[in-house]
Amino acid sequence: MNRLDFAGRTAVVTGGLQGIGDAIVRRLKDSGARVAIWDVGGSPSVDVSDAASVEAATKRTLAELGKIDVLVNNAGIAGKNAPTVEYPVEEWERVLRVNLTGAFLCCRAVAPNMVKAGYGRIVNIASVAGKEGNPNAVAYSASKAGVISLTKSLGKELANSGVLVNCVTPAAAKTAIFDQMSETHIQYMLSKIPMGRFVSVDEIAALVCWLASADCSFSTGAVFDISGGRATY
Ligand SMILES: NC(=O)c1ccc[n+]([C@@H]2O[C@H](COP(=O)([O-])OP(=O)(O)OC[C@H]3O[C@@H](n4cnc5c(N)ncnc54)[C@H](O)[C@@H]3O)[C@@H](O)[C@H]2O)c1
After folding, report:
1. Is residue 1's pLDDT more than 80?
2. Is the pTM of this model over 0.90?
3. 83 exposed, middle or buried (CB, 10 Å; 0-12, 13-18, 19+)?
4. With a 6 A CB cut-off, is 169 part of the ligand 1 pocket?
5. Does 76 reside within a domain?
């Protein structure tokens, strides 16, 4: 593993208890960062889709770590697979609320502290589904397209503040999120990857941690692809 310099840095990783988030937490810690995990399964539980929960977590983390240099908006759910015209409205709202509103609420709570400090790195975990639009995954795809636009808007707003905002668009990685998807959908995603395999969580963590580091200094509002050749833009 290449180590980046996170000495003296603090980070928040949402959904950091397992899967991609856990790989990001491990890499950040191995590179010297102090990390707070905000996860609905953690103790205390943090629900990114709930504004009060996010506000409380921000206050608690600032009290414990003193500052937040890095925010990785990784918490997310797949939602069920169904054709758009049959997609349950409540499921659409649940997926949008966690994946898109959750990232918005965390940015909204944390970014002002970064701006005040004159330094920050926000990395949002979108998905290649947000660029391509996967069939039978309308809520997930639309939520991740929203995360891409959130990244672009906030990146431009904060461009002169020392706070950089970028996102990554991974192809499918074999994590517990697969339990929420149909086997047909998983095989569809794999069939679309020219490299012919799933991306590993460590490969995603490597890109995310570079974007979270001071080495990333002239990219903001940008979308970094990690889809094994699937996306052509
Ligand atoms: N695995 C993939 O194929 C893939 C591909 C592209 C993007 N992504 C994205 O990467 C991120 C992580 O996915 P993963 O595969 O590691 O999933 P995962 O299901 O293994 O982990 C998700 C984590 O988020 C937490 N979480 C869920 N809802 C939450 C909420 N409301 N508040 C706080 N925490 C919450 C869960 O408890 C869990 O620890 C997600 O945003 C996902 O959409 C995943």
Report:
1. no
2. yes
3. exposed
4. no
5. yes
